[in-house]
Amino acid sequence: MIQVIDLLSWSMPGVLLLIGVIQVLRLAHAALLHLTLRKAISVDAPIARDLVDKIDQRLDQQRELPGDDRNGLVLIALGLAIAGFGLIQQDDTLRSMLGAALFPLFVGVALLIRRWLVQRAIASEIATGE
What we know:
Layout: H1 2-42, H2 47-64, H3 68-88, H4 93-128
């Protein structure tokens, strides 16, 4: 157990640094995209309309069906893993682990239910022609 804690204690700063670098690079990419779009709009370039249309299409696709199913399944798996860990332990950790497992399980189930309701609403809109 001490070896695992030692491994986590020296590897976590590296993981956090990697996540931070990735986020900074994503931010720089977005800033360059906005700068390019601003310059194209200011000189009234014909490609500016295509870029704006592409961004609008991307936003419309993201609004329709977000990634709730994947997030929900990951949270359910996390909750089951925590519960399984509590079952494997031979001491009194079962009760606390099952309690900790309830949060990701409930959130995961709620996300899957939300996804199902969104799909039903979209299917209803398509069927009624609205």
